[in-house]
User: Fold these one by one.
Assistant:
Number 1:
Amino acid sequence: MLINWKQRELNLKIVYYGPAFSGKTTNLIHTHSKVSPQKRSELVSLKTQEDRTLYFDFLQIELGKINGLTPKIHLYTVPGQALYESSRRLVLRGANGVVFVADSAEDRLYATKDSWVNMQDHLASFGILPARFPTIVQFNKRDLPNALPSQQLAEELRVNGFPTFDASAVQGDGVLETLKAIIQDVMKSIQRELA
Amino acid sequence: MTISNEPNNLEFLPNRLTITAKQQQAIQALGDKLKKETPAELIFVADRNGQVIASSGEFNREKLGELGALLAGDLAANEEIAKIIGSKQENQLILRENEGEHSFISEAGEFLILFVLTSSQVPLGWARLLIQQVSKELARTVEPSSNGHNPVELDLGTEGIGQDLSDNIDNLFS
């Protein structure tokens, strides 16, 4: 978080984390398509030649003023592929909140659980208590025929207490609701921190 | 909900950097001075997450956020490379020599990044010397030891940000 008093800006960083192919970039693509150009940056994607996320995707959105401060929200995705462990950690560093994008497909359950634990390990290594860190869990790909029930996913991941949202990012369902929830969660956390 | 008076100093907490108006002016002045003395086409200062703090020179302001994110990623990746190959990591400086211009990404202490774009006519040694000096001065502007101990008072309200925030987010998508 960067508070700039002269420019009256509050800069926040939110990271979309999750296993490969869970739909992190799709969340940002949909957000980019729905926010008016005056209120967002271009979507920056550092991709491999195979069109997979190499390092991160980035999108900045600007909210209207709150108490005279303009919140600027910096949205990042991490690369999902196992190879890019170091990059995931770098992107996660300095985050004020995370959206964990879970893949609802039954055959991706192991990868999803592994990524969830991996994210919490990274947060803990930064001295952050994962249980108290602003986190939203998005159960993506609800449109798949082999999607596990959300309740089962919540139990498998032990998401205890974190808000969850069903989504189909490729169809745009649940994307904006998830984003709204994490922004609100992060802002509330800042309020608590500064109180 | 109101914003309290601006604090006199800055305070570091996990994941937080606060820049006061006075510090912003000092950072801007250092950037302007560096631009003139080098001379440089663009000076850009961001925090280590790439969040924009100051710039000097002609550049599309709408692209500054994207530039900041990429610079932060670039510097962070280089730090990790340095760790892997066992290089010393303090005061990293990344230089790119291009046909018409050179770019420098410099670590300015623990919290800031300095980016400088110069014409290729500017001697590299001269630019590097100035950039290293200014990087150290920039770092001092946000040193915890220089800030006293006044807490940052950013009052976003005690009853939840509530409707204002909710409306603002909804307005994004309208």
Number 2:
Amino acid sequence: MSDNQPDATGPNSPTNPSISDAELDSAIEGVRSVVEIVGQGSISRLKLDYGALQVEVEYASELPAATSPQPPQPVLIPASPAEAVPEAPERPPVHVSAPLVGVFYRAQGPGKPPFVESGQRVAAGEQIGIIEAMKMMNSVLAECAGTVVDILVDDGDVVEYEQHLIAIEPN
Amino acid sequence: MFDTVLICNRGEIAVRIIRSCKELGIRTVLGHSTADRESMAAWLADDTVCLGPGKVSRSYNNVPAVLYACAKSGADAVHPGYGFLSEDATFARACEQSGIKFIGPAAEHIALMGDKIAARNAMGAAGVPVLPGSDGPLADLGHARGLAEQIGYPVILKAAAGGGGRGIAIVRSPAELEDAYTVTKSTAGALFSDDRLYLEKFVTDGRHIEVQLLADEHGTVLHLGERNCSVQRRQQKLVEESPSPCLDPLLREQLCDAAVAGARSIGYVSAGTFEFLVGPDGAAYFIEMNTRIQVEHPVTEVCAGLDLIEWMLRIACGEKLPFTQDDIRLSGHAVEARINAEDATRDWAGCSGRVSGLVLPGGPRIRVDTHVFPGYRVPPFYDSLLAKVIAFGPTREAALRTLERALAEFRCDGLPTNIDFQRRLLRNEEFRAGHYRLDLVQKLLAETAVAEL
């Protein structure tokens, strides 16, 4: 089951032959509004009975049931795996993505040392690369402080919009 | 043939182009925006490249992004579809300079036809009938006044760089001229960074007739008959049909010959369309040439039995058309209804949202070109076209009956559509009789307003 797609399951038609399409539609619509009211991410299980009709909704959320409001960008917020999802991996790396389409460079120029190497610590806002588009050099900056754990693109590769360039493990 | 074609477009036309490429064994790459990541075209393409965010200036109209996307994906040709970069001469030239084949006409022909004054002059010189009007840009208000007196009101003021119904004003009397001139000039400057205006006779009660052309590099220019696109709202087409029910054989031949002569005179290569305005007296005038594939091309494909996208690809590859005008057989009648996510009762306001339920029509003599699927979200950044339903039959009456049947089958829940409006239009007597003009939609809306009183 996906994270953002509530699975509104209809009745098993063989066992509930009496339910009309209209009833089914209205039930699904009802569940949809319930899901919206409760808010995404906090449902773990919901069961509704409409007489002959039974609807079950389940959420397999990656995020723990937090008391604070859900972050808009979960990758930026350290998860607390011990609380609710013990088997979840440790804090996920933050990916610095391409802000535009162009050629990615790891260094200021040919023969120059790369801005960052794997294992290196970076500060938030520190330059990690350049994307050239039509002779315009665009700086790419680290979104957060941490340790560079992976460099995902080779020097001189053409990258698409929002392509992951490097992975940083936040401090 | 090309190895890899990048399609820098979206929606139904991206799907349409991918389909023809697949049948020709060409690898397809879709250049798309973040808003179209989850789209039918993205699933069907062999590869995808994200060009930028939803806003068109940063994705579908972003020339550097499209060129880098070609480099990244190894595309040797690019199909621009319609809209976006399809009639951008700078883009066509940039492709040429980058060694990527632009699947469309030469940049110089896009530029020529994009300048409405130059296009008018070139076509006039080639013997294509043009509306009485100015030979070049209007020098000033006095110049406009003199010409308007000479031609006779009503006249229409148009921006040289305009098109698609933008940057125009109809002037019905001398008293309206000064305001219209000032407003249109400043609008044109703001919209197109080019405030040159020209003036033409305005034809009331006209009909929009266009001729589809195919031209190769080897000197073959042929037409595939005409389409009548007179059902329009706010200068946008709603229904198109071929052949036109209101053309006599002589006028049809004149228009088709004029279009072929016009294209031949400039050495045009690729698919293209000549648009004409036909007055109530049967006099026909050139309006503009579209140097791209058009939304309504399936109407012609059905009647001619040809795949126009396939021929655009083959022509771009340098192939010679293997048929002559005499080999072209146009048979039967085809009608297309555009299904848009729009609210006809709220001045055709486009609507975005989620398609919660979808049942597409089918059965004999129906073709549906669409990118919509159940659960699809119509993004707010682009046009409102959801689907094109094309019906065909041996006669116009048969094709209209099939279209009526198909539209009754069409269900699209979750957002407003114009399906009901299209069904009403099909029942309209004037439309049914085939002698409708460009004012048909206005009349139909006025009827609704009266009925509601």
